[in-house]
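QA checklist item 7 of 12: single-chain prediction sanity check.
[x] sequence parsed
[x] length recorded as 324
[x] structure emitted
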Amino acid sequence: MQIINRPQTDPYFNLAAEEYLLKSVSEDCFMLWRNEPSIIVGKHQNTLAEINYPFVRSKNLPVIRRISGGGTVFHDPGNINFTFIALGERDKLVDFRRFTKPIIEVLNTMGLPAVFEGKNDIRIKGLKISGNAEHVYKNKVLHHGTLLYNAQLNKLNEAIRVSGEKYADKSVQSIRSKVANVCDLMEDGPGIEKFIEIVLQHIQNTFPFSKFVELEPHDIHSIQKLADEKYKSWEWNFGYSPHYTFTNKMVLRGKVLEVVVGVEKGIIVSIDLNENNKKHEMVKKLEAVLNGKKHNFVEVRKIIRETGIHRQIFSEKVLMDLLF
C-alpha cells in the first residue's frame, strides 16, 4: 500500500487529488490530509439547501462538491480527513466497516470507546466524531472520512445550519448529528500533529509492505488542472444540484411578499412574486431579466444593478434577501 503524503491544505486541490488518484493509481493507497476552512457537499445534494448561505458568504468560505455521496461536512485544520483507495471485486468494494476499522483501532488504543454506528459514522458515547462516504470507479473504491480532532465546532454548526423549508427538491438530505472533538473526549491527549503520526504508524503496521510516497510534479500539475477546471467551477459546485424550487417570504411595510423561483441545473427557469397573495405587477419584468440566469448571488446582484429593476420595485437589499 502507498501512503501518500498530502501536505496541501487547499480544499479545491485536495478534492481534485482524490479523483485524480482514484483514476490513476494502480495500487491501494492511504492518505491523511487537512483543508483550510471550507464546506464540502455530497455529489447528489442541493448545495444552497445544505448551507447557511449568508454566513458562508460573509466568511468567504469555499463550497465544493465531492464525487462521493452522503451529507455536507465542514472542514478546517482541526479536522483530519482520511482516504483509502482500494482495488477489488466490484460487488465487494463498498465496505464502510473495513475502512473505518483502522481508525477505530487507533482511538481504542488511546482509551476511547469508538464504535461504528448508523450508516457510516464513527461515534464515541453516541457523539459523532467521523462521517464517511464512498465512490466506486471501475474496480476501485474511494473511501474517505472526516475525523473531528480539534475543529471549530461553533463555526461548523453555523456554516451548515440551514432553513430547509425554503427548498423543495429530491436531493439527498444531510442527517444532522450531535458532534464532538476527539481531543475533548480525552485527558491529556496528544496534539493533532502527534495524533496524525500515531495514525500513520498504525496504518504502516497494519498493512505489510506499505511505503511512504510523495506526489510527483506531473501529478501535482494534473491535479491542479482538474481543480481549476472542475472543482473551482460554479457548474460543478452549484449547477450540478438537482432541480429545485426556492420559496421565500418577508414582511415589508405591513405587506407579505413571497417569491417562488424554479431552478434547473442552477439556472432560473421561472420566477413568481406575490404581494398579499396577489401576483405582483413587476413579475414579468423580473422574469425578463432573471430567467435563464444563474441562481447565483453575485450574478443576480450584478443583473439587478445593471438593469436598475430594483428602483422600479424594492431596494436592492430587499430583492436580494428575497431571492437568497
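[x] summary fact logged: The chain has two domains: 2-237, 244-323.
[ ] second reviewer sign-off
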